[in-house]
Amino acid sequence: MTLQKRRVTNLLLLALPVFLFFNLSFVTALWWWYRGLPPENTINAHISLFTIMHLSWLVIFYLFQLLDLRTYRGWQWIYRLVWAMGLSMIVGAFIFYLQPNLLVTPRRMLAVHVVLSSGLTLLWGAAATWAMGKRRPLHILFMGVDTVATERFSELANQQRFSIRCTHVSSSHQAPLDEFAARKPDILCLSSTLPEGYEHLIEEARKERVPIYTYTDLYEEFLRRIAVGELHSWSRPNSSPFMHLHLIIKRLTDITIGLLLGLVVLVTAPIIVPLIKLSSEGPIFFLQRRVTLDGKPFTIYKYRTMRTDTDSSTWTQKKDPRVTRIGGLLRRSHLDEIPQAWNLIKGDLSLVGPRPEQVVIVEELKKRIPFYAHRHHIRSGLTGWAQLQGYAGTVRGSQDKLEFDLYYLKHQSLLFDLEIILKTLRSLAGLSGR
User: Fold this and answer.
1) Considering the entire predicted model, what is its pTM?
2) What CATH homologous superfamily does 138-223 map to?
3) Which label site among 169, 233, 258, 333 has the fewest CB atoms less than 10 Å from its CB?
4) In the chain, what is the straight-line distance between the N-terminal and C-terminal CA atoms, in Å?
């Protein structure tokens, strides 16, 4: 089974049963409340409403990482489940009262439904935790791959909480076929340049239906990033009619989100502006030159969060003394970013894309990091695949982020954008700003 199929299978293993439990709880609550089957029109009204509700609950479960098998390697998921079901109850009540003419009643049935759903998902989570405890790690056999590269892959995979076991065999090994038969890996990773005699190994792996990857392909598909250190060249992915449609939809989405954020600015400005003025002397807005599509510089707009008597042209550090007390609050809540609504409307930024860096920093990184300029083949974004991985305040951190930016550039799609937006919402809920 390929890694992509494993990823989809693992998601379905959790999403489908959970959705089934939601519907089973609904049917049970309906039967219990009406002491049998209600009239057909009542059933139809309930089905339409609860289907919308259950789909929204699946999104909530995704945001709380309850549709990720890695979450069930311990019992911390119970804490997530409590919060997820609490939020689901609130969303369910909201949907209930939005229905026209309040056709679906009584509201107390929602509470019964939530309790039943919580019980079933709790049992399912316990079963998943037990199964994950019994599940053996995925065994990846690296043959002919550099030892340092193997160790880096293993380290990065463990950082992402993957349960794997990496075994390394050098390319000088005289009996690769015997090693393969003895170790029985789940995945075989080979160097792109192998010595003679490995043809029989590849044939045997295909016969045993063991997926075969080169190191760069495994790194990309498993870790969802590009191994920049292994790259010899990079070209912009070919355009297609689907990509043109994607860009049109993306631009319309950017304008829509920009207008909505503009409304948020208007509503919150009477509170935020006085707080900024009281925190320190200086302007309300922070303007800075950043770099976007095709290396074009533009002016980014933010609420000012730093004192004006400091240098703001360097990377922000953790617990940066330049940040004011109100500025820290704005950064943690990400409210300092909302004036970028104007950048979205103008087309300087997209909702999803690489982080726009300062002009002076970009010029420095282009000299020190290979292929760095290629991240500007796409419009910079408010959020992005690399931005979800944390903040980079060093050259090394920027190189790591470039691997995610290039992955997004290669695999960009509406579904990928939706995944990034959902994960951004999850990150925002944690108030994890700098």
Assistant:
1) 0.83
2) Response regulator (3.40.50.2300)
3) 233
4) 40
